Each structure stands twice: as C-alpha cells, then as structure tokens.
Amino acid sequence: MPRVTYLKPVSDTSLKLFLDRIAMLLGTNLTVHSGDREHQPKGSPSKSLHLKHRAADFHVVGVPDRLAFDRLRSQRNQLNELPANRFQLIYHGPHTETEAEHLHIGDYALIKAVVLGPGITFLLEGTTADAKGRYTVAI
Fold first, then answer.
1. Helix axis angle, 13-26 relative to 65-74, nearest 10°?
2. Which residue ranges make up each domain of the chain?
C-alpha cells in the first residue's frame, strides 16, 4: 500500500489526506521534504502557504517530478474528492527560483474554495530558463 513519508512536519489535516490520495492514485510512495515553515527560504514568496502551515514540497518515489505532475493533471477528476478545499499543485522545474526541482501542494482552505470553487489549480514554474520565477496555469 502506498504511503507518505514525512521528513519535515505537515500539520494541515486536509493536506495530509490529499497527499495520501495522491500516493494512492499514483500507486507509489511520496517523500515530503518540506512542510510547515517558520522562515522564508531562498526563492520562496513572502505569502507562501508553507508559512501558514498549509503546504508541502514532495517527490513521488521512482517517478520524475514532471511526469508525476502530468499524471496528476490528467487524473484531476479522481483528486477532487475533498469538496470543501481548494488546492494548488505546482511543478517547480529544473530552472526554478526555489531551491531545486520538486512538486508543491498547498491547501487554500475554505475561503478560496468558496470564491473559486473546490478543486485543484495546476501551475508551472521554472520549466525553462525564461520561466524562472514565472507561474503559469497548466490546463
């Protein structure tokens, strides 16, 4: 059974349930290497959901980050099982302004879900040198 290994703490319950759902959907383990933060590391926005304890950075074991992102995007309907939440899934590519290539999941919580509706926003950043620090919606 796929599981999530936390190398750093993640306190948001909805986020943890969503990470479990991602592991089950992809059929493989996840490793969370960044979660709740009290500081702003290089390249991280000042309004990062990590600082609000509602975000996690992770890798899918045995699957390249971009491929995992694309698989999740293609299976978005199976991920929409938490109706009171609005999540963002970001692929920070090889040219990211953050520390290194990875996947980021953030829980906007109820307020954004009311405004935007529940579901997931898929974003790309740092996929090319020109896209470093620029976030675009992936449809």
1. 90
2. 4-38+47-137
CATH number at 4-38+47-137: 3.30.1380
What's the rounded Cα separation, in Å, for the pair 47 and 95? 21
Tell me the per-residue pLDDT of 110-130, one tens digit each, with 9 for 90 and over: 666 566 666 788 999 999 999
The CA-atom distances, in angstroms, between 69 and each of 8, 39, 60, 105 are 21, 26, 9, 11
Query: 40: how many CB neighbours lie within 10 A of its CB?
Result: 13
- The contacts of residue 55 (CB under 8 Å, 6+ apart) are 12, 15, 35, 48, 49, 104, 105, 106, 107
Residue 138, both tokens: 């992936």
Percent of the chain exceeding pLDDT 90 equals 58
At residue 60, what is the residue type? V
**Residue 41 — φ and ψ, nearest 5°?**
-75, 170
Determine contact, residues 33/59, Cβ cutoff 8 Å. Answer: yes
Q: If you search the block for the tokens 């991920």, which residue do you land on?
A: 79
